[in-house]
Structures are given as C-alpha cells and as structure tokens.
C-alpha cells in the first residue's frame, strides 16, 4: 500500500493554530438519552469502532516552527467513561454541559471521548464529544454512523513519534518548499479579501483580542436548551408557511437573533451556516466552507418564501465567496500565535452573527450507539474553555443546531448576552415564545 499523506490540510492547520493560540476551540457534541436499559457491551463495541474510523487520530506537531503538522494514529481512550452514581433524569442537560468542560486536546489527547451517565429512573444519557480540529459536524455524524454499523476505516496514519528528529526535519523542510507556490497564491487571496472586506474588518476589530489568561475556576458553558418536535408537526408548519425544513430552521434563528438583539442597523440578522464539501473517502477534519445569509426577521412567522429565496441565492453565490474566504488558509503555518489571536474577530465575522448548523434528516444508525434506538438525540456545537469575560468580549453568542431522526426533530439553542444576566431559565422562555409564534409546540424540552 502506498504511503498515506499524513499532512494536515491547510484548513485543519488553521483550526489547530487557532486552538493553540487561543487555548480554546469549538467542540462538537452528540448526545443520546435512553429511557430503557443500555447494552454496555454493544456500547463498548461502538466505542472501539469510533477509534478505528475518522476519529482514530491525533495531531503531532511539525519539527519546524513554521511547518505543517501531521496526523498520527490514536484509537481513543481505553474505555468509555462510565459514571458510578446514577443521576435523576430531570436536569440531565446539566450533565451534558459538565461533560463539555472536561478537557479535550487534539494533540495530547483525548481528542474525543464517550461518556455514559446511568439514570435513577432507568436508562442512561450518553455523549460523544470531539474537538473540531479532529472532525467537523458531518464528519462526526459519518463516524458515528459507521461505528454503529460495525464498520471500521484504517486511515493508514503512522503511530505517534515514529519519525526520528532528523527524519522529521528533512521531510517537513521538503514539504515546506513544496508549499511555497501555495503561499504566493494565498497572499494574493488575502490581499483581495482585505480589500473587499475592509468594512467588516473594521467592525470586527474590536473583538480581535481576548483576555490572555483563562481562569480555570471561572469556566462556564453558555446556557442552552433543547426542544423536540414530532416530524409531522414540523413538516406541516414548514409547508403551510411555504418553506422547507432548512428555511423554517433559518427563520427561527433569525427571529431569535432579533429577540436577543443580534441585528444590524437595518434590523437584519446575519446567519452563518457551515456548508459541507466532504466527499467519499475525505479525511479532512474540516471539509467545509461557510455561508452568510442576511435575513429580515419581520414577517418570517407568517411566510418563509423570502427566507427560502435568500437561502437559494446565497447557495448559488457560494463558490465565489468560498474561494475568497478559504484562499488565504495556506498561510496558516506561517501565522504567529499573537497574530492568530488578533484574527479571531475576523473569523467570527462582522456584527453579531447567529451560528446555525442543520444536519437535516440523519441515518437511523446515528441514533443507535448501543444498537437500539435512543429515545432522544441532541446535537450541539459549543466553544470550549470559555469564561464570562471571554464571552462578553466576543460580543456574546447565539448558536442553533438541529437534526431529524426517529420521528423527532431536535433543535438546540445556546446563547450568551454580553453583560448578562444569563441562565437557562432566561433563555428558555423567549425561545419557547418564538416557537409558539411559528405555531410549533415542543413535545419535550430539556
């Protein structure tokens, strides 16, 4: 078998650079709630399979300070993290939050972890958390589907520390020389992006620095809630409003953005969607680009036609904007940590964007980590290792994620208002009110 190229793609190098520069980064979280007994033997098979797929790796630093880093094989923690003491079902979302604050490290490990919390009433809560530097949302979904189906995937990466110092220096130096043409193209792309986006750069500059030290004692997770709807109710509402599932999700996000004051001077809400570019056999951690959609929240509760049209227009224009945004990423290995910290505001975008991730209809295996259907599935993306000061400095956050499986649509919402007050209770009330404005009544709320 030919040697596998273990060099990180430029976009993955940029993701890892940001994590190292800031001391924090986004985490992707899947959660399952079982109201019936869990098969722990099957769950351990699922855990082993996860480590023999797209998650089966860590990052090893280049021997050169400006070199591109490499993937190395890593099959995951020795065992799943099984809690000794059962907890009550009520308040189980607090447990999911607590799991997000346990360190995840794509270099030192663990780059992902699977945890199980037995419930006093019977059943269990399960969560899988992975660094976004290892796998994006769709990649994690595919890894789960494969592991639950019993499939494994040998990525062909070498074991950690398999290169001598001299070998690593020579190989990374050769790789650097090969990358010089990419650097030249990236510099030109960065110049174009800077010229075309000068206004956005200025408006985001105020968020381009952060407190230099994270106080571990003050770590917080942005308050969140999860609502579940029957597929029939969700489809009925989207059709009666003249939209699609994605446009209904976007409209809800826009209305929430308005409610939380995340609007521009024209009252428009900026939605940011990841757009997957993952192809069969794709081993990139972040095989995606981004799409920004400006939505007027006025009238979206009575018609989705304008939202649907704007989503269609933005998708049609995506190829050009993707080139502009991703063109400079080849420069990632050359960017010093201080400058990387200063670029965070630009990465977030101008104004007060609303993050959106709708995975749509999922394969049934995604909901079966122990081989049987979980009663409830939750999907979240949360920034790790944040403090109130960091969240305030970034202008707060509002992020929605959704997925559909086993006859249910889940919608999770996480939010932080700069300066507060912030709590799950203060978040849940306006979210439920907006659902009601769309004619949606959750069958369950966590």
UniProtKB/TrEMBL annotation:
Q: Which SUPFAM superfamilies match?
A: CoA-dependent acyltransferases
- The protein's name is Diacylglycerol O-acyltransferase
């Amino acid at each position: 078998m030919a040697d596998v190229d273990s060099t990180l793609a430029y976009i993955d190098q940029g993701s890892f650079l940001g994590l190292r520069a800031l001391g924090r980064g986004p985490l992707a979280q899947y959660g399952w709630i079982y109201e019936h007994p869990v098969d722990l033997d099957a769950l351990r098979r699922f855990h082993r399979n996860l480590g023999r797929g797209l998650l089966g790796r860590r990052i090893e630093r280049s021997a050169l300070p400006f070199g591109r880093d490499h993937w190395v094989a890593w099959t995951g923690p020795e065992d799943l993290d099984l809690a000794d003491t059962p907890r009550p079902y009520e308040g189980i979302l607090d447990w999911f939050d607590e799991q997000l604050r346990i360190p995840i490290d794509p270099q030192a490990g663990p780059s992902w972890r699977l945890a199980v919390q037995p419930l006093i009433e019977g059943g269990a809560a399960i969560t899988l958390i992975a660094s976004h530097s290892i796998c994006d949302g769709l990649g994690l979904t595919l890894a789960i589907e494969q592991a639950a189906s019993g499939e494994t995937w040998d990525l062909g990466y070498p074991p950690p520390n398999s290169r001598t110092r001299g070998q690593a220096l020579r190989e990374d130096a050769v790789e650097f020389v090969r990358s010089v043409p990419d650097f030249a193209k990236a510099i030109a792309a960065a110049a174009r992006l800077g010229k075309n986006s000068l206004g956005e750069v200025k408006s985001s500059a105020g968020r381009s620095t952060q407190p230099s030290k994270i106080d571990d004692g003050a770590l917080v997770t942005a308050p969140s809630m999860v609502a579940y709807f029957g597929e029939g109710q969700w489809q009925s509402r989207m059709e009666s409003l003249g939209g699609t599932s994605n446009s209904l999700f976007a409209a809800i996000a826009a209305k929430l953005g308005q409610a939380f004051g995340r609007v521009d001077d024209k009252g428009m809400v900026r939605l940011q969607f990841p757009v997957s570019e993952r192809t069969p056999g794709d081993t990139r951690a972040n095989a995606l680009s981004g799409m920004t959609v400006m939505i007027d929240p006025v009238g979206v509760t009575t018609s989705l036609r304008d939202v649907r049209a704007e989503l269609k227009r933005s998708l049609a224009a995506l190829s050009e904007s993707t080139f502009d945004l991703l063109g400079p990423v080849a420069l990632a290995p050359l960017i010093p940590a201080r400058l990387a910290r200063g670029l965070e505001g630009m990465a977030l975008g101008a104004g007060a964007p609303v993050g959106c991730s709708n995975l749509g209809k999922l394969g049934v295996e995604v909901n079966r980590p122990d081989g049987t259907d979980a009663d409830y599935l939750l999907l979240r993306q949360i920034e790790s290792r944040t403090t109130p000061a960091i969240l305030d400095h970034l202008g707060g956050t509002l992020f929605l994620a959704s997925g559909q499986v086993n006859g249910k649509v889940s919608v999770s919402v996480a939010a932080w208002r700069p300066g507060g007050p912030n709590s799950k209770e203060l978040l849940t009330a306006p979210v439920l009110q907006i659902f009601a404005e769309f004619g949606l009544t959750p069958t369950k709320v966590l």
